[in-house]
Amino acid sequence: MFIVFEGIDGAGLSTQAFLLQDSLEKLGFKVVLTKEPTDGLIGGLIKAALRCEWKTDPWTLQILFAADRSHHVRHYILPALKEGKIIICDRYLYSSLAYGSLECDYSWLKRINEGFPHADILIVLDLEPEIAIRRIGKSRLGLELFEEIEKLRRVRENFFRLAEEYGGIVIKTNKSIKDVQREIFRVVEEKLRESGLL
Ligand code: ADP
Ligand code: MG
């Protein structure tokens, strides 16, 4: 079971990915929590570019995201899935499509991300950009390249479209962490039952 969290920055992806891992482990599942960009070398290049520590262009950046993903999929995600583990991924290729298509051609982005496995459960966490920015502001120093509000509005719309295209579930996060957690758990529980894993 491959579960992916997506949404704009500050929507609560990392918080909820961690809480879902905890809930599933309590049920006895073996769970791997992972994220993109990864903590590997290519992920480091990407994070440095997002922090403006080196300058590149949108196309090179998206190719780096795809390269980071290729390594992540082949060396972590697929092996863990083969071992019967549940993978929870905090951002994945849908982020490349949602953020990348602000500057790069959508069909080109799809092409360079072809062949990567799609999520069994795609969860799009949705929050008004103004609230997301406020939440980030409280917890992080400095805003990264992508975090301007206008951009976030367009990215949010892109995530709505992606949820339709890929059968994702949109969950609003303008409520308490606990309420969001419960809603996510209900969705995942149902899917696990459908798949005979629960
Ligand atoms: P993301 O990974 O989507 O960027 P985080 O999970 O890091 O977001 O959350 C950003 C900030 O918002 C953190 O300080 C987190 O504690 C807080 N937060 C997350 N979910 C909620 C919520 N439902 N209500 C209030 N604050 C939240
Ligand atoms: Mg996060």
Overall strand count: 5
Task: Please tally the helical runs, counting DSSP H or I stretches of 4 or more residues.
Answer: 8
Specify the biggest β-sheet: 5 strands, parallel
In helices, the fraction of residues equals 55-70%
Termini separation = 12 Å
Compute the gyration radius: what is it?
16 Å
| Class by alpha and beta content | alpha/beta
What number is the mean pLDDT? 95
The share of residues in extended strands comes to 5-15%
Strand line-up across the major sheet: 2-3-1-4-5
Write down the secondary-structure element order.
Answer: EHEHHEHHEHHEH
- Bound chemical compounds: adenosine-5'-diphosphate, magnesium ion
Low-confidence stretches: none
Shape: globular
Question: How would you sum up this structure, described in words?
Answer:
The protein is α/β, with parallel strands linked by helices and 198 residues long. Helix content is 56%, strand content 13%. The chain contains eight helices and five strands. The longest helix is centred in the middle third of the chain and has 25 residues, at 58-82. It is globular. The termini are close together. The model has no long low-confidence stretch (mean pLDDT 95). The structure holds adenosine-5'-diphosphate and magnesium ion. Magnesium ion (MG) is lined by residues 13-14, 90. Magnesium ion binds at residues 13-14, 90.
